[in-house]
Amino acid sequence: MARCYSARMAKRYPVPRILLLSDARNDATLERALGRLPRGSGLVFRHYHLAPAARRVRFGALRRLCRRHGHSILLSGAAVEARAWRADGAYAAPARLGRRTSGLRLATAHDLAELRRAARAGADAVLLSPAFATRSHPGARVLGPVRFHLLAALSGVPVIALGGMNRRRAGRLRSHGWAAIDGLS
């Protein structure tokens, strides 16, 4: 299941260790949050609440800000759409990533079957969730630290923790990195 990465690919499209996910809840604080993130972090632009034209405009503004702060920006959607928007990559379920493109490809996963699909799809990393309880999905079954570690150990690609994450919880998990909406906003 493991993938080989060329040194050139890893240098051009490194997998960020910290990812901020955007949505309607944190839109007003994104500029400040991006300014506080360490260089080399990333933004996963979702903004599903916006109409298509407004979503594209907001993406452009945030892409310029990400460039200024040394962050990558990924579009939630198919890799072909991410390339058209001049994103650094795509964030999607493994089936939506599409064939290999020049950008970073982050997949979503919630269980072992989805981890395996992500590896087969050629994902560069996977966001495994929900690690902990989250406001985004109240009452959803969480992985917890033990199950998270078991699944991450079986992954053929780097794992990024998502779901109820903050700096303290990230320190408890052994993973490539962590991602959050509220925990970084």
Your description of this structure?
36% of the residues lie in helices and 19% in strands. With 185 residues, it is an alpha/beta fold. The protein has a single domain (7-184), classed as Aldolase class I (TIM Barrel, Alpha-Beta Barrel). An eight-stranded parallel beta barrel has the order 1-2-3-4-5-6-7-8. Helix 6 (112-120) links the parallel strand 5 and strand 6. The longest helix is centred in the N-terminal third of the chain and has 18 residues, at 52-69. Mean pLDDT is 89; it is low at 1-11.
> In CATH, what is the class?
Alpha Beta
Shape: globular
Overall structural domain count: 1
Trace the largest sheet across and list its strands.
1-2-3-4-5-6-7-8
- Separation of termini? 34 Å
Structural class computed from helices and strand pairing? alpha/beta
Which topology does CATH recognise? TIM Barrel
User: What portion of the residues fall into strands of 2 or more residues?
Assistant: 15-25%
| Mean pLDDT over the residues | 89
Number of helical elements: 8
State the CATH architecture. Answer: Alpha-Beta Barrel
Q: What profile does the largest beta sheet have?
A: 8 strands, parallel, barrel
Q: What level of helicity do the residues show? A: 25-40%
Low-confidence stretches: 1-11
SSE string, helices as H and strands as E: HEHEHEHEHEHEHEHE
**What gyration radius follows from the Cα positions, in whole Å?**
15 Å
What is the CATH homologous superfamily assignment? Answer: Aldolase class I
Oligomeric state of shown chains: single chain
Number of strands: 8
